Every structure is written in C-alpha cells, then in structure tokens.
Amino acid sequence: MMNTFASHDMPSLFEQLSKVGQTSSEAYLENAHGVLQRIVSMPDLIDGISIEPKTGAYTRTLLFGDRHISVWAMRWGPGSRTAIHDHHCSCCFGMVSGTLVERRYSAIDERRATLSQELVRPSGFVACFLPSGPNVHQMSNDYSDEAISLHIYGFDHRMHASSVHREYEAVELSV
C-alpha cells in the first residue's frame, strides 16, 4: 500500500496535535509520540525545509507554532551540543537522520547536576516527557555526520524564547 502522507500535510498534523494538547497530558504525549513516529519513519518529508548549517553548532527552524505548541526542526553539526538544561514545558523529540547522544543528569540543586546516563539516540528514535522534573539533559552530536531532529514543545514560541527552564553546571560528586 502506498503512503500518501506528504510534507504539506504536516501543518494539519500539528494543528490536530495542538487541539489534543488542550486535553489530558497522557493523550497529548501519546499523540505527539505518534506524530513524531510518523514523520521520522519518512525522513524525506523534511527535504524541502531550509535549516541553515552552522559548523560546530546546532540551528533550528520553526515549522509550526501556536498558543499551545511549537515544532522545531534542528540541524546538528558535528561537535554541536546544548547546555545541560531542563524544560518548563513538555518536550518530545524524534531523530529524523543521524545520531545524537542524550546525557541525562540528576539535579543536585538549582544550578548543579551530576551525570547519571549516556544514551545513544539513532535515526528513528522518539521520546516524550512532561516537565515533571527536573528532567535534566544535554543533547550532543558526538559523530562526524550531521543529524536532524524534530522537537515538539508545549509552549507558545511568541511568549518564550525557548523551552529551556534552567541551565546547569556538570559536577562530579566526591565519595
């Protein structure tokens, strides 16, 4: 059976997701996960989207935004990474191409965190979580190839510059 979903259908998918976002958290996360699964299973859907490359850094392009959600495509150059951070809103992401490393941290206080897990996130991977946190993590491209990810955040991009609630400094606990 031929798949008839096209990139021009993405805005309607995001609009439907935004409406679900006004209901229960569980329903929203389930739907966001499904939307991301659908898109990452067809990576050619983002071929027409312009995401400027930046050596050693990540860049992002807003694909959809309203009062409830913002959807960003992110391009990760080799060596790029986020700060260690948590989110003030729900955060869902899917790997369209390439591989990222997600480092999860345990917060010690409001400024410091210690590394607890290092997880490889390959093409096709999808994750969603609520800001039940702190859900402290860092994303990085530790590989020589570019990576592309899609992020759905539960915030109005016109009201907040970013989904980041707080940034942390990595520390090692002495025994």
From TrEMBL:
Superkingdom of the organism of origin: Bacteria
User: What keywords appear on the UniProt entry?
Assistant: Dioxygenase, Iron, Metal-binding, Oxidoreductase, Plasmid
Q: From the UniProt record, which GO molecular function terms apply? A: dioxygenase activity
Q: Where is the signal peptide?
A: none
Family per record: Belongs to the cysteine dioxygenase family.
Q: What is this protein called?
A: Cysteine dioxygenase family protein
